[in-house]
User: Which sequence fits this backbone?
């Protein structure tokens, strides 16, 4: 996140998170094969525990490029206020990619959920679902630091939509129906205020 990052101008709060209005205009196109998974992800401790609890059924969805040693899957827990429990647990990077990413660039957690006929993101950590958005200092914002360090992410030619539109399904999932409707209403209100010159775009 850039050094100038501040939530001071964020006025709308939904589900306990301030909303960075830049998400409504930031151009984005998602066109690579999951480079975002190459650094692993921070999980809530409940998420890493859930993953460990399904280890037996997860193992068959992992290939020879992934570790079958469950002790190698996660880093040591560390304090992080952006996590509900105050503790974040990172997934380890093995063979240059998240321990749960297979050689085809697919997430084993998602493969398992889909094979079970369950909701595709049932086992996926929330930060994986949200990226290229993220939660930072109590706000929903753009993970520009991670986007910038990736070689291909949002750097391909072609049509760009807003990051909000690119992440619509993920936002619906994260916020739930009622809170997402509030986010939609805020977006309309915010864009209308920009159009009428009541406020300046962020
Ligand atoms: S979010 Fe970025 S890194 Fe991840 S798949 Fe899309 S373009 Fe690639
Ligand atoms: S858990 Fe799955 S989606 Fe998340 S970084 Fe690892 S491979 Fe990617």
Assistant:
């Amino acid at each position: 996140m850039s050094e100038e990052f501040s939530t001071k101008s964020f006025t709308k709060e939904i589900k306990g998170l301030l909303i960075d209005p830049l998400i409504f205009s930031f151009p984005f196109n998602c066109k690579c094969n999951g480079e975002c998974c190459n650094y692993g992800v921070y999980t809530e401790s409940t998420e890493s525990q859930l993953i460990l609890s399904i280890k037996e059924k997860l193992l068959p969805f992992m290939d020879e490029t992934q570790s079958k040693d469950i002790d190698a899957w996660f880093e040591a827990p560390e304090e992080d206020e952006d996590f509900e429990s105050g503790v974040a647990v990172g997934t380890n990077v093995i063979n240059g990619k998240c321990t749960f990413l297979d050689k085809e660039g697919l997430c084993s957690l998602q493969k398992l959920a889909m094979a079970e006929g369950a909701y595709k993101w049932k086992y996926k950590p929330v930060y994986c679902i949200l990226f290229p958005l993220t939660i930072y200092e109590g706000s929903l914002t753009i993970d520009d630091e991670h986007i910038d360090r990736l070689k291909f992410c949002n750097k391909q030619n072609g049509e760009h939509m807003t990051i909000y539109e690119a992440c619509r399904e993920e936002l619906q999932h994260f916020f739930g129906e009622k809170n997402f409707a509030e986010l939609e209403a805020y977006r309309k209100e915010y864009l209308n205020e920009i159009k009428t010159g009541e406020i300046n775009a962020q």
